[in-house]
Write a structure and sequence with these properties.
By secondary structure, the protein is mainly α. It has one domain. It contains 7 helices and no strands. Helix 3 runs antiparallel to helix 4. The longest helix has 25 residues. The termini are far apart.
Length: 144
């Protein structure tokens, strides 16, 4: 159980806030600002999708004010870390982000927060969202 909670740690504010604060003071500030903008655009999209599908969360969680599909936790995490993986050309960063997102998804499933379908749906939405964004705003335009 402790291992699963540790695997969800990279999606917590305890990791995301310091990473983004450091990033905002780095030479890649534009990337971090853009990543945060994508996150803030992703949240209302997730709310709309949840309202459209209206798949209830596990009743044992006691959360009756929201829906399960797609997992907002996983979608927003994938948008934040996924956008940074696109910005950085280092293969190790991209591999670490990919493995981290997969392990995070497995952990929130095993902890009982979401079904596999909720998590796969969130990955799908995040990937499509990022693909559309980077088609509209190519990376070379962002780097200029």
């Amino acid at each position: 159980m402790l291992l699963l909670k540790i695997l969800t740690f990279p999606s917590s504010a305890y990791v995301i806030v310091p990473v983004y604060l450091i990033g905002l003071f780095s030479n890649k500030r534009r990337f971090y600002i853009l990543s945060l903008i994508l996150f803030f655009l992703s949240t209302p999209l997730n709310i709309l999708l949840k309202e459209f599908f209206q798949i209830p969360l596990n009743p044992d969680l006691g959360l009756t004010h929201t829906y399960a599909f797609p997992s907002g936790h996983m979608q927003n995490t994938a948008i934040l870390w996924g956008s940074l993986a696109v910005f950085y050309t280092n293969s190790w960063v991209r591999i670490a982000v990919g493995i981290g997102l997969i392990l995070n998804g497995i952990a929130i499933h095993l902890l009982g927060f979401h079904t596999v379908l909720d998590i796969i749906g969130a990955y799908y939405v995040a990937i499509v969202f990022l693909l559309i964004f980077f088609q509209v705003f190519p990376k070379r335009w962002i780097n200029s």
